[in-house]
Amino acid sequence: HVLLDAACFAATSAIDLSKYTPDYVALSFYKMAGYPSLGALLVRRPTDNATEGPGYCLRRPYFAGGSVVECTSTIPWQMYKEFPARLEDGTLPFLSIVALKGGLTRLSSLTMSQIHKHTVVLAAWL
Question: Where is the Aminotransferase class V domain (predicted)?
Fold first, then answer.
């Protein structure tokens, strides 16, 4: 499996995911919009297949708050939520998710080419 850590790169450059086809892409909205400190994991082919596919790599040997539908205390058994909800432990940062809209709205008013050129100028100045 291939993981593309695009957290830094995606903030200043376009990524063609049809040219490079990783199984996973890690993104940082903090680096793209400044606030809030949220990230994302894009999964090319979500699957719950127990022996292959990206879903297999995302299996955990434990469960935490909010990631299961039910479990027992007498035998080691649990029923996980559907993918991708099973990867979200606890309460989602809903206020941060709402705040992200403003940053993404601003980013959508610019082109990635403009952002990249500005970044190159700033790097040369430093």
Answer: 2-125
Query: Could you tell me the residue range of the domain that residue 121 belongs to?
Result: 3-125
Q: What is the pLDDT of residue 4?
A: 92
Tokens, residue 63: 């469960």
CA angle 82, 84, 87 (to 5 degrees): 100
- What is residue 93's DSSP assignment? -
Q: Taking a C-beta distance cutoff of 8 angstroms, is the pair 116, 18 a contact?
A: no
Which 8-state DSSP code applies to residue 102?
Answer: H
Q: How many domains does the chain have?
A: 1
Q: pLDDT tens for residues 51-79? A: 455 556 666 666 666 667 666 778 777 77
Distance CA 120, CA 65 (A): 43
Q: Which CATH number goes with the domain that contains 110?
A: 3.40.640.10
Q: Does the global pTM surpass 0.85? A: no
